């Protein structure tokens, strides 16, 4: 056990310490919410289609999960998850704009580096 205080001789000099800022916290939050594959599907589709209704988005996500042929239960459960989990989470992170009253969503204009991240992952929608 060392008698050195935390941050002792092994610590980086003050001029080399990185500070956390709002942008880094925004990046962390964006990466956290996009770690879920369904949320990435949502963003891919919204980036391609623009503003769309939640029901159309649910058909896309359900079809993607079911390999193209979702049944009625898949559509219902996907729509519920979109309305109550995924879209609110993405909206809270500033990634999408979600209008609950209108039942529409779109990729946020100022979404922090989302388009760049989506392009790097290389998924192509059919």
UniProtKB/TrEMBL annotation:
The cross-references to Gene3D superfamilies, in alphabetical order and at most eight, read: Winged helix-like DNA-binding domain superfamily/Winged helix DNA-binding domain
The UniProt record lists the DUF7344 domain at 32-104
| InterPro entries to which the protein is assigned, alphabetical | DUF7344, WH-like_DNA-bd_sf
Q: One matching Pfam family, short form?
A: DUF7344
**Protein name stated in the entry:** DUF7344 domain-containing protein
User: Which residues lie within the region annotated Disordered?
Assistant: 1-20
Residue intervals passing through the bilayer:
none
